[in-house]
Amino acid sequence: MENEDIMTxxxxxxxxxxxxxxxxxxxxxxxxxRLVMTGTPRDEAIQMIACALSxxxxxxxxxxxxxxxxxYSENLTELPDMPWEDDI
Length: 88
Prior knowledge:
Blueprint: H1 9-22, H2 26-37, H3 42-63, H4 69-78
Helix pairs in contact: 1-3, 2-3, 3-4
């Protein structure tokens, strides 16, 4: 994997912001609204969503796989808990 292939945290956040602007996938907007409504500051919620996105990006890069929307949605549903951290 070359350095230019690595997504930075800022790129992940930008991708989340783009997903929100595009309304696709809808679960991203729903997750943001749920987190903010339960008291999580917006910036922190975006960072959490970016963490869930990073799991998918990492898997695609590591395994030459496809983006798994189902797993991404499941990880978003778990927020603010991040159970995948146990796997790291």
